[in-house]
Amino acid sequence: MLQKDNLLKLMDSWSGMFSLKKSLSTSNEQKDISNISRKFADENYSRMFVMIIFGVLFAFAFFLSDIVSNFYCKEFPVSILNMFYEGLYIVVGMTVLLIGIICKLKKYQLSSKMKIALHTIFCSCAAIGSGLGYVSESLRGQRSIVPLFFVIYFGTVTTMPLGLFFFCYAAVFLPALITQGVIHTLETAEILTTIGCGLFFSFNRVIYLRFRLTQDELERVNKELGESAITDPLTKVGNRTRLYRIFETNKQQWMEEKSEICLVMCDVDNFKNYNDTYSHLKGDECLVKITEAIKNAFPKDGTFGELIRFGGEEFLILLAGDELYERLAVMYQNIRTNICELKLKSGVGAVHEYVTLSLGADISPYNESFVLEDRIKNADLQLYISKNNGRDKMTVTTCKEGNL
Question: What phi, psi does 288 have (nearest 5°)?
Fold first, then answer.
């Protein structure tokens, strides 16, 4: 019984190597394969044209060779097949190549679907042409299928839809096998070679797709881990690490554009009272709502903006661009309106009936003397001025200093 179970497990594992069913047990996993198809079409788009050039050169060389040897006059029925075989390569290959060149010159970005369509058109026609060439060789009693390996292998590797593999494979081999069967020249070796090629290509295809599934999953997990390292888990906005990364990424551009940098420290007024009155869980809900209120107030004119949870009930707003004093004034009014509409009751002992926000802002040019920590300290100082002046205010320090 034990040996039988082991045998079944062994058969199951081997069958799994030639099947994607285990890997695609859910619709989401099947969707992953479609995503891989689109990504792979993008990656191999330029390689497809290399394959086309080689294919056209081979077909053109065969075409010239047939003309020189006067082949088209000697074997009329077979020569017709060769004309289709070589002509399909040349016409379709040159057409697809021309489309690619035009798109490149006009700097037109093709969609993934269009790239897959071009893959499909060329490789389908190449497979049909190869099948006709194989039939032609069979009628002449030849068995050379080495050129077909080039077509079918590269065609299936660089073409995405898995179903197209089976079409290309059938288009290359089945016509020749049927022809050989009709004229009684079919041999066992030919059948075994065909089956062996199919298993070889299928095996490579399945192994590759499984590899890509695993690779994409690893990339997704690494991306999520990277995002979690720079994201506040409660409010889903950036943390201090993200703030430093933003400056590291954009410093060169901001320097060249001579941008202004606006840093705004925000603090929820009397938040301890809110927590003590309604519980810390309600306090977390309050912070999430405050976060959304601030995010919805950001400028919609393309000005660079980012919200950072600085710690506890403190947030930092980062704006980069020009005319930031005027943009900040509008943003502040929107923040006040959004928070007022929340109507979050303040806790016992709070100064205001509803939750409010105090802000302190620093606006300065981004140049060689810009020091992030110093600008944050200055924004924090303006925040305390707002707190001492009665809360629910914003104090700004810039070339146009004042209270809003």
Answer: -65, -45
Say how many Å lie between the first and final Cα of the chain, rounded.
83
CA distance linking residue 78 with residue 354, whole number of Å: 90
Whether residue 54 is predicted with pLDDT greater than 90 in this model: the reply is no
- How many whole angstroms separate alpha carbon 52 and alpha carbon 90? 9
pLDDT over 70 at 15, yes or no = no
Tell which residue, 134, 123, 34, has the closest CA to residue 82: 134
Report how far residue 60's alpha carbon sits from residue 80's, in angstroms, rounded to the nearest whole number. 16
Contact of 119 with 51, CB cutoff 8 Å = no
Residue 37: closest CA among 169, 265, 213: 213
Sheet holding 357-365, edge to edge: 304-311, 314-321, 260-268, 357-365, 394-397, 402-403
Q: What is the pLDDT of residues 275-306, one digit of tens each?
A: 999 999 999 999 999 999 999 999 998 899 99
